[in-house]
Protein: 1465_t:CDS:1
Amino acid sequence: QPIANKTEQLEAAAAQQFSTYSNKAKETAYKPIDYYNKQEAFYRGLFWICVLPLEASREQAEIKELANQLKHYQTLYQKRVAQDLDANQLQSEIQALNQALQEKQKLTKYQAMLEQKIEDLGKQLIFTARQKIKGKKAAEELGQLAQTEQKETELNSLIQQKEQELAQQTRQIKELEQEYQEEKKELASFKNQFVHFQKVHQQQVLADLAQELTHQDQTIKELEQLL
Structure:
């Protein structure tokens, strides 16, 4: 009976929340998914998928709290430290907590089964949604493929342009190298001419110097004869 009551309460709360959600959606003209706006099962399934984990978490917290209370009263009963509670009252509290704990555990098992059913429903709804948008996805993929091909064409054109620029730069480099070799040859020729001129000039200077010395020697000899 407690499990049935709890189930009815959960279903009533879910129905109330779903009604509030639907009214709010109609007032604000908000449609999460346009082609599902007439399928109440879809919204109800999404609501339960969101609510049940929270409910399960709350139930687990309540079970943990009951287990802690049970352990506390068992400690009091075993040590006989409670002054305002006698042994019979403690035993009654322990039994009541045990019963509540068992009911919570049963309810948790029932909720697990319900969650599994809702999960199956969610999978079916997702499968239906995928089937309905399959055509749209295919069209989008074709559009993306066309865009990819266009990008590849643009990239090929850019590559060809860069290759042409590289070939032109290569030709310019070869021309510069040829000019450099010619200038190098001219510089070597000029250097050879300069060395030859320098040698000729040195020989002429030496010849002039020798002639000057000869002239001086002759002058000295003439002076000696006069003396």
Observations:
- Confidence is low (pLDDT under 50) at residues 28-39.
- The two ends are 166 Å apart (CA to CA).
- The chain has four helices and no strands.
